[in-house]
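Subgroup meeting minutes
Present: P.N., E.W., G.H.
Scribe: E.W.

1. P.N. recapped why we're keeping a running log of single-chain structure predictions: easier to compare across weeks, and new members can see raw inputs and outputs side by side.
2. G.H. added today's entry (314 aa).
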Amino acid sequence: MSVPKGNLVTVNYLSDDFEAWLNDKNRTVSDKANYTFRIVGDTVINCVSKNAGVVSFYNANGDLITSKKFTKFAIGSFPAAPTLYGHTFTGWDKTAEEIDEAVKAGKSVKVTAQYKKNLTYYSLVLNGGEVVDTSSDDYNGEMSFREFSTVTVKASFETPIFRYWVDGNGNIVSYRREYKFYMSNNLELTAVYGVTPVTKQPTVRTISAYYDKENKRSVFVSERDVPDEYKILETGFLLSSDNDILNQVTPLTLDYKGELLKSVSINKDNSGTYVAYKPEKTGWHLWGVVSYVTYQLPNGRINTIYSNYQRIKI
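Output recorded in log:
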């Protein structure tokens, strides 16, 4: 049938053996017999019904793996375990005995794959300080922390004077004696001390930029540390896929006149982490990324600083 693009279409299955509507990729789009959707292009909608003795296997995303009629069901009747990025398959939500009992009673059965998320851990090498807090609930003092857990470290000594924390590459990451951050990679931190105080400078870093396959989105993580006497006016991310940006011919700044996407943090605390998400499908695509902070000095002057440039491939 032909339906103009943009129109609403309602399909309705009138029998009581309805199970689900599927699209052309065998993904469940509705578990309601009466389903309304908008036409955005060529559309295929298929119906799965609860035929007696039919066992339908679905993955965690609601995609139909296979559907087959059985008169009896044994453990060897299960299909191969479906994969799910970032997870380990743990089994099915029904046992072979439960399915066998149902099909022998002439019933249809829906079976869904079960998974557990693979946890990633990162190590922390800490010099001249100690861990005072973490959200990694399985932390046992071994300096291994769950991905994206928060960790707070504190400089150990009162004298000589604490100046700042540096990472394994010698970059200053914080001027605060007590420093809170996200674990997104293996990390080395060293507390630097001296006989005189240091003049604190605003810092902003893009600490991670990657594609999250499981949730089909790009993820950007930045960290900032601005002296408390300064006022943050705005902080966030800048993205562009222009060739001049990708080839680093032109710096990616707020003044850039080409394609520019901007994500702004609601939080304006002087010290903190900002995580931004950009939903998008996989495919060959590149983004140039920087994080930035615009702040006001006590004398009223306004300044903007930018992080290191990163490039992310989708």
